[in-house]
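// run 5 | inverse folding | seed 20
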């Protein structure tokens, strides 16, 4: 299991041609913790975002991601759900439990690449708290995203 921040920026290569088709820029997932795919920033003068469904990934490596040829789709193919940083991004939003306890801000997600599931969430309480206490890790639970907060369906 790894955090998405360790994967962000990795180059994406087609399996048969070895062509570098871009780099990973975001992750797409549902509120129940299912990874749907990734947003890839394409190379070139007119860089654009493409969608890489999870089933298009051949392998996750520490130095790159190998995908099936022609696995990248137009960004209009993005499924309904959430991401960390793009237009439906939830990184930086406050995380609050169902009983009203504020846990901190959502910073990252832990995911199992081959299983296609979110294993947990990384929560921060700010720079100094992270230095003294460390970041919090919360197991993956269903959540609801509002305009100003993420409500996790658990009680602390």
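// decoded
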């Amino acid at each position: 299991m790894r955090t998405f921040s360790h994967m962000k920026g990795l180059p994406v290569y087609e399996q048969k041609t070895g062509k570098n088709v871009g780099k990973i820029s975001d992750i797409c997932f549902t509120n129940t913790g299912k990874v749907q795919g990734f947003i890839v920033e394409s190379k070139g003068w007119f860089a654009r975002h493409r969608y890489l469904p999870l089933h298009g990934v051949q392998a996750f490596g520490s130095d790159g991601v190998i995908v099936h040829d022609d696995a990248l789709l137009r960004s209009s193919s993005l499924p309904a759900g959430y991401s960390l940083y793009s237009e439906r991004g939830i990184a930086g939003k406050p995380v609050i439990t169902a009983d009203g306890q504020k846990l901190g801000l959502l910073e990252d997600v832990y995911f199992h690449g081959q299983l296609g599931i979110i294993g947990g969430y990384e929560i921060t309480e700010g720079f100094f708290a992270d230095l003294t206490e460390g970041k919090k890790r919360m197991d993956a639970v269903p959540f609801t995203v509002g305009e100003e907060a993420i409500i996790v369906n658990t009680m602390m």
